[in-house]
Write a structure and sequence with these properties.
By secondary structure, the chain is α+β, with helices and mostly antiparallel strands. It has nine helices and 16 strands. A hairpin with a 5-residue loop joins strand 10 and strand 11.
Length: 399
């Protein structure tokens, strides 16, 4: 793992290639029909697919997820309560499209508004929440907060003009940003996430025909439990979806399809591909020694390199090519060294998937060498300057 031509005074970046045999290989390629798509294995943090995923696009009602996220935060922080009754403004009532059919001047519980947004995709309900949480009581003020909060979450391709995705100049989100947002909702708010799996909501007996959740994957029996559909003539048909099978959860975002039927078919295709073409495998156990690194001026000449935790990764389930890995570290490593000290990286390459970098740490302590070690090192350096072959002989024979 080290080169004998490496001088003791030079630190070099060294690599060793390992072959992880028989674990998996190339998954069948997937061609998304959506204009833009993003597929993310939440369990392992693996991006499975990114098609135009960073393009800012009209998100339609999928942007209501940002309003919901900020409402959940407000409830968690005590600024809003599910039992609070919020006033419906004329502005909120005037929204067309998907609606809870709220009336100006009435008061509606936050819990009902949340269900109205999630299940009924109520534009009016989103506006009521927005006005209640806005610093100036306006939906436009809340939209500015949405944009600021999105930046804090790393959603750098999102900007908001309203709370519900009604077509407006500058109201844009990328598919990756919607995936980041869905990930946060699922992880940060497990108490409220089950609301996304509700298939119907009857609010106060109003317009019974508008009581069904439009999410097409909830009824597929594939573990789907969220999140939000979207449609406008400009954006096409889209969906932020999620499903859990066993210990794995997959989040996906699609946009730009030309019909509700195409959206449903694409969603099912993605879930089948994500769950059937990939599997989580244990590649290494914690403490596995992957090699040794040369130690400079230490009581021991080498130190073992190991991983702290079990290495479990998502890998393709079918194919013929093997995974490969490289151990990368700077050598020699100067003593003293503490067990657990980071020494380098294990870089694993997977067909069809991004590479993974895992820290490598020292297996044991290595104390700084005493006088004899320093004397030997000085002799080696001097001999190498005078006669490299003599230094090589001394290094090989001297204990």
């Amino acid at each position: 793992m080290t080169s004998r031509a490496l001088t003791l005074l030079r630190f070099a970046l060294l690599t060793t290639t390992l072959i992880l045999v028989g674990l998996a290989a190339a998954a069948q390629s997937f061609e998304a029909k959506a204009r833009a798509a993003y597929v993310y294995d939440q369990t392992t943090g693996t991006v499975l697919l990114a098609k135009n995923a960073d393009d800012p696009l009209p998100p339609a009602s999928m942007s209501k997820l940002m309003t919901l996220f900020m409402a959940f935060e407000a409830i968690r922080d005590g600024r809003l309560h599910v039992t609070d009754e919020l006033l419906v403004s004329q502005h909120a009532m005037d929204y067309q499209g998907s609606s809870m059919f709220l009336r100006s001047g009435e008061r509606v519980k936050v819990e009902d508004l949340l269900r109205g947004i999630i299940v009924l995709s109520g534009n009016d309900a989103s506006a009521v929440i927005a006005e209640a949480l806005s610093p100036d009581g306006t939906e436009a003020g809340f939209a500015r907060l949405m944009t600021d909060r999105a930046r804090q979450l790393g959603m750098n391709n999102s900007s908001f003009a309203n709370s519900n995705g009604w077509p407006a100049v500058g109201h844009l989100m990328s598919m990756r940003d919607l995936g980041i947002l869905a990930d946060h909702i699922i992880r940060d708010f497990p108490t409220y996430y089950p609301l996304f799996s509700e298939t119907e909501f009857h609010f106060d007996g109003r317009v019974p025909s508008n009581s069904q959740n439009r999410n097409p994957i909830l009824a597929l029996g594939m573990g789907a439990d969220g999140l939000k559909t979207g449609h406008t003539s400009e954006a096409g048909y889209g969906l932020v979806g999620s499903a859990k099978q066993g210990d794995r959860r997959v989040i996906f975002v699609i946009s730009g399809l030309d019909s509700a039927e195409a959206r449903a078919e694409e969603s099912e295709r993605i879930l089948n591909w994500a769950f059937r073409q990939f599997a989580e495998k244990q590649l290494l156990k914690a403490g596995t020694r992957l090699g040794e690194a040369k130690v400079w001026m230490g009581e021991a000449e080498t130190v073992g390199l190991t991983v702290v935790e079990d290495v479990r990764l998502l890998v393709p389930t079918f194919g013929a090519a093997d995974l490969s890995a490289e151990v990368v570290y700077k050598s020699p490593i100067e003593a003293p060294i503490q067990a657990g000290q980071e020494m380098g990286e294990l870089i694993i390459s997977r067909p069809e998937l991004p590479e993974v970098r895992i820290p490598l740490v020292a297996e044991t302590d290595v104390a700084e060498g005493g006088f004899a070690v320093r004397l030997k090192t000085a002799a080696l350096v001097l001999l190498r300057k005078i006669s490299p072959s003599a230094a090589e002989t001394l290094s090989a024979t001297d204990g």
